[in-house]
Amino acid sequence: MTISKAILDELLQGVERPEDLLGDTGLMKELKIKLMERMLGAELTAHLGYEEGQDAPPGQRNRRNGTSTKVLKGQDGELPVAIPRDRDSSFEPELVKKGQTRIDGMDDRIIGLYAAGLTVRDIQAHLLDLYGLKVSPDLISRVTDAVLDEVREWQSRALDRMYPIVLFDALRVKIRDADSRTVKNKAVYVALGVTRDGQREVLGLWIAENEGAKFWLSVMNELKNRGVQDILIAVVDGLKGFPEAITSAFPDAMVQTCIVHLVRHSLNFCSWKDRKVVAADLRRVYSAPTADMAEAELDVFEEKWAGKYASIAPAWRRAWQEVIPFFGFDPAIRKIIYTTNAIESLNRVIRKSIKTRGSFPTDEAATKLIYLAIRNFEKDGRNVREWFAARNQFAIMFGERFDA
What we know:
The chain is of the alpha/beta class. The chain has 18 helices and seven strands. The protein has helices at residues 5-11, 18-22, 27-48, 106-115, 120-131, 137-155, 213-225, 242-249, 259-267, 272-286, 291-305, 312-318, 320-323, 331-339, 341-354, 363-379, 387-398, 400-403; strands spanning 64-74, 77-86, 162-176, 183-194, 200-208, 230-236, 254-257. The model has no long low-confidence stretch (mean pLDDT 82).
């Protein structure tokens, strides 16, 4: 649809300054109100079956019954719109639905600001400064609470039958306990799967104050109930009871300790001046061609550093049964397991969202924000790099389990 030059010239008569067009009482705002009222009038005409100013069809009792003013909030500020009414109140407009108070995707803007980590007070200030809107904390909470329905649907959706790789990771979040009213450190656990086609997919998130074998088994059973029948490689960060819970639910799964977490744990024992050298020496361990050669490199590492950092090599030996599967993989698969770029980038997105929060009032508040961060993460591309080579290796190593 093209607006003629004559109409534009007529509309712009008397517009001399920018605020005459874009200001709070300018032409653009007035035009939006008038167009909405015109469309609402057309909706009522279709509902009643006769034009405004004409007589109603014979025998029809329902008539126009004036208007009521509704103030809508949008990116242009507050818009007072006259909503037409009918006598028997059967008219339900589509343009501005009953109970609707916001337009122009204002809900999406509020959710977007919340997802960026802004607090309710920050969102209030932003909307007031940018749009001149005074929005109550209750309204912001209602808008963001609507995300919880989406979370519940997402958390219970059906999953694929098989995932070649599932990476399990955790981060700590401060959440106020409902009973004691004290702020506690709770763990947020995330499962990131890689599909048969090399797509990254966050399978779910769980919040727990105390993890253990019972908790992990409930997570595994949830994944099974949602359709997962097989996991080829489960990558974990050494949490107690986790490998046993995985193999209890998925007996054929190969449990692999996350090499990145092992290295980080090791470097926590080192002074800053030694970290680069220790990291380089550890690289010789996990870069070894075979498990036997890796163990020999670990012996060399221990002989060199035992006097200064006696706890590093024993930590690797304690986790060795979950480390050695790594050495049976082709470099194409090793790279995906070792670098764990997917889970690391996901954690960066989540931490960026929650870093401005001192603590969350409830588990639900934390869940909302973390879910929105996950949603943003999955929008930015989900393909695992160099998956083609890894996929061929999976097909050879796991045969029917991969192809079924």
